Amino acid sequence: MVRRPAASPVSPVLQRRPKDAGTWFLFVNVLIVVGLGIVMLPPVDAGCRPLVRKECEKICRTNGNCELRIVVIMPANTSVEASLPRVRPVLEKAEEHIRRRAIIPAKVAIRWISYDDRCEQARATVMAMDGTGSETCGHVILGPTCDFALAPVARIARYIYNDGIPVLTGAGYTFDFEEPKTFCENEFHMLIRTGLVSFKRMAYFMIDLIRQ
Ligand SMILES: *[C@@H]1O[C@H](CO)[C@@H](O)[C@H](O)[C@H]1NC(C)=O
Fold first, then answer.
1. How far is the centre of ligand 1, averaged over its atoms, from the C-alpha of 133 (Å)?
2. pTM for the full predicted model
């Protein structure tokens, strides 16, 4: 026979109250402090150049349509490893994955905006500007995948929009791309390299290998 605890005149929920009240008091206090902080502190400005935010920069427009615009800048020539025809299927897979795992809300459409920079510095720079102009208003740049084209795009990215625009690439092997990027003064402030290697790492690897 299962022994039941003696029925208490106070319900278990009410009995636990004194201890809970302390927790609640703390929780409410924290909320008040955070709330006051939000109201009274000036908003943090992450940008390197204060600009007026354009209406088109919003992911969700006032009419309720939401769209994430991803600017892809890389060569169309397949003799370059990371070229548009080779990368596009990977991006489609990535989108499938994002949808399946619901990483971004289902109501947000994804628009891919591709540009062929032919691995040229000047073309890549102009395409980054086209991709972030009032007509396109991209939210993030993928590429460029050639280091020479990547450099100018990653340099200007911190001055595009009020908050800069993130530049994500698997390239960026040369030494300068490995420098710190914490502050606006850092040349490649908005650059995010997803690749594992760089020339510097490879050089250290070779030196270590030869030493052994
Ligand atoms: C692609 O690049 C290769 C090597 O640089 C070049 O020989 C070829 O003409 C290019 N193809 C096109 C269509 O530009």
1. 29
2. 0.76
pLDDT in tens, 30-61: 555 555 555 565 555 567 999 999 999 999 98
Q: What distance in Å separates the CA atoms of residue 201 and residue 195, rounded to the nearest whole number?
A: 12
The domain ranges of the chain are 66-201
For the 66-201 domain, the top CATH level (class) is alpha beta
Nearest protein CA to atom 4 of ligand 1, as residue? 79
Tell me how far apart the alpha carbons of residues 187 and 162 are, in angstroms, rounded to a whole number: 17
Nearest CA to ligand 1 atom 1: 77
Tally of CB atoms within 10 A around 173? 17
pLDDT tens digit string along 163-190?
999 999 998 999 899 899 999 999 999 9
**24-47 burial code (b ≥16 CB/10 A, e <16):** eeeeeeeeeeeeeeeeeeeeeeeb
